[in-house]
Write a structure and sequence with these properties.
Structural class: alpha+beta
Distance between the termini: 18 Å
Number of strands: 6
Radius of gyration: 16 Å
Helix content: 10-25%
Order of helices and strands: HHEEHEEEE
Strand content: 35-45%
Largest sheet: 6 strands, antiparallel
Number of helices: 3
CATH topology: Thiol Ester Dehydrase, Chain A
Shape: elongated
């Protein structure tokens, strides 16, 4: 039997990789983060700011904004069916997210080598206003997201 991923287009592989990740991603699902777009090296995820996310300055806690950016980064760098993790991340907060806002994180690959990559994520509110800029550096570890039936895990 041959590896079914070799017959997939890059777009199909990206979508299947995202589906495999999402099935195990309880954090994203618990926050009701929606995957709006997946393509090789790209991901768009969105999240509604709820009352539970509001901190003492009447705005969205930065940890939730970071989680949205980090999740978009994770989905973008895992679109090649190679298990890839964060090597480092930074975020710059530009404007607050407010209760009821829909925040959208647009992640795009800037560079990708054999094991490392750099991804930029732009987080905007529903009016297209910039809320944060996130940069993630990725590192590819062993393994794949989509199980190869001809080569089951040991």
């Amino acid at each position: 039997m041959t590896d079914r991923t070799t017959s997939m287009t890059p777009q199909q592989l990206a979508e299947a990789s995202a589906d495999a990740m999402y099935s195990l991603d309880t954090a994203v699902r618990a926050l009701n983060i929606a995957i709006e777009h997946i393509a090789p090296g790209e991901a768009t995820l969105a999240m509604d700011v709820t009352e539970k996310m509001i901190q003492g300055h009447d705005s969205c806690h930065g940890g939730y904004i970071f989680t949205l950016g980090d999740s978009a980064f994770a989905y973008a760098c895992n679109t090649y069916n190679a298990v890839t993790v964060a090597q480092g991340c930074t975020i710059d907060y530009i404007a607050p997210g407010k209760l009821g806002d829909r925040l959208t994180a647009y992640a795009k690959e800037q560079s990708r080598g054999k094991r490392t990559g750099v991804y930029d994520v732009r987080i905007e509110n529903q009016r297209g206003e910039l809320v944060a800029l996130f940069r993630g550096k990725s590192y590819q570890v062993r393994g794949t997201l989509i199980e190869d039936p001809s080569n089951p895990p040991a």
